[in-house]
Amino acid sequence: MNAKRKDYLSWDEYFMGIAMLSGMRSKDPNTQVGCCIVSQDNKILSMGYNGLPNGCSDDEYPWAREGDDPLETKYVYAVHSELNAILNYGGGSLKGAKIYVSLFPCNECAKAIIQAGIKEVIYDCDKYEDTASVIASKRMMDSAGVRYYQYHRTGREVKIKL
Ligand SMILES: O=c1ccn([C@H]2C[C@H](O)[C@@H](COP(=O)(O)O)O2)c(=O)[nH]1
Ligand SMILES: [Zn+2]
After folding, report:
1. Any atom of ligand 1 within 6 Å of the Cβ of 36
2. Which of 20, 26, 33 to mutate to test the pocket of ligand 1 (most atoms within 8 A of CB)?
3. What is the pLDDT of residues 84-109, one digit of tens each?
4. pTM above 0.90, yes or no
5. Is-contact 105 150, C-beta < 8 A?
6. Pair 24, 34: CB distance under 8 Å
7. Rg of the chain over all Cα atoms, to the nearest angstrom
8. DSSP 3-state assignment of 47?
9. Ligand 1 within 6 A of 74 CB?
10. Ligand 1 centroid to residue 98 C-alpha, Å
11. How buried is residue 47: exposed, middle or buried, by Cβ count under 10 Å (0-12/13-18/19+)?
């Protein structure tokens, strides 16, 4: 019984799993986004999820998508998962890193990803692919030499009893 286990998680499963788990911290009732930034040699550098800025209470700010008053929607307040992960990183440079993210990054996150020097985006869902935001995001990443590819789902279920 000294043979090594064969059903261990692949790197992609591991990092996308952590991105998805991070997204479960989000209070957004409609879309929970999580991400995990990883060095070229597979060390985890940072994680993030979509949420409010520090000091802004989850109970006091709106989570609505629509409203007559934009100030009563989440869009003007929520910090996106990717930006949170980039800003949370305390270790210096993210040059050459990869980011695993459960939703394709919007145009604003794409700008932050590019400027931080992240070179690879591995995403799961691309549900906003037809929006100007995501089209612009892909255009900027193409120009900046940031590669992006969709995570290949393996169908593996990971059960954790908490
Ligand atoms: O790049 C992105 C794009 C979006 N998010 C967050 C921002 C919001 O909290 C949700 C999107 O909500 P919808 O109800 O689907 O419009 O996702 C992000 O973290 N990163
Ligand atoms: Zn974004």
Report:
1. no
2. 33
3. 999 999 998 999 999 999 999 999 99
4. yes
5. no
6. yes
7. 17
8. strand
9. yes
10. 20
11. buried
